[in-house]
């Protein structure tokens, strides 16, 4: 099996859908020798902020001298982004070799009477095996969906669990209240362990805390008073970490914009405190280095200035709300030109009040996904409620002449489905719109 054949096999398992449960992944990892038991794991669940928080933790551990794996989903531009070690994506030869091995073990499972693993279960198994072969020290493991029955939760032991911001998403699987969703996310907490909780609604924190206490685990709720933003510009923001009992940080820079990213870095720092107090060498210098170099494509990512072009994968109401706050903070009274595309099941009508009032003109796009809302339908929805000028575009390429005609003082934003943001990022990169990336 070569790389192309391995990708084809992985994507062919999409037809087996999304099935929450651990029976299949447990058997598959057993047949692979339980590779997930070979390294220390920081497990990260939540609705928003998982990727940013995971990347921050990963980059600090790497700067601390540890060989560190990162498992994320979905990918933005290349499939190999999902499985990384020290910022290097899994190589195509390893992916093909391990996929062949996983396919052989799936054949054994089917003979034993198990169902065929889903696509996410297959990718999770491939990642675990690759990380074992790479002999990593730590794995920062991002949950795919939910937590309790997510394939990543086959891991038996974690150094620390992290629960980021929770909002409404995947309700058909996780429940129709924040408490139900929080309960599912809290399913990653292990017995006699530690959990870090992003600062959020009391009912969410209580639900997670109750699960943790039932497992005799320590609960650490992040306190927003522990961070102070000192300054910021389009390259990032500087902050003081006011909690001094474990780390004594001087003013520190990160490349992420938006108030929510201050809370994400707080969450990451609290998780790193657990790593430090567990006997691992994480220093103030490695924190500064890791955060200074850490980037996460597609999350309020400034591609260039004059004109400003920003990409943001805010694909649900919580993500769009974060985006709108970041626009107000960084662009002040400047109205933006918005390129917007969402999936139908993400309730586009609910996010419009957060984003449309910030716009002087809107162009709608159709994400490359069967669940996408058509650009014409999204434009009609916006016109129904707002007087802003709206124009549906037929293809991503239609954005290029608009960008070429933009004025230096313009603020342009591509926002919505990550399926769209990844394709747009590739298009803009190939056409010279990304500076110094």
Which structural traits does this protein have?
single chain; 437 residues; alpha/beta; UDP-N-acetylmuramoyl-L-alanine:D-glutamate ligase; Protein-Tyrosine Phosphatase, Chain A; 2 domains; eight-stranded mixed sheet; six-stranded mixed sheet; 15 helices; metal ion binding; tetrahydrofolylpolyglutamate synthase activity; Folylpolyglutamate_synth_CS
Characterization of the model:
The chain has 437 residues and is an alpha/beta fold. It has two domains: 3-293, Mur-like, catalytic domain (UDP-N-acetylmuramoyl-L-alanine:D-glutamate ligase, 3-Layer(aba) Sandwich), CATH 3.40.1190.10; 301-430, Mur ligase, C-terminal domain (Protein-Tyrosine Phosphatase, Chain A). It has 15 helices and 17 strands. Helix 12 links the parallel strand 14 (336-341) and strand 15. Helix 2 packs parallel to helix 5. The longest helix has 20 residues, at 92-111. 47% of the residues are buried. The model has no long low-confidence stretch (mean pLDDT 93).
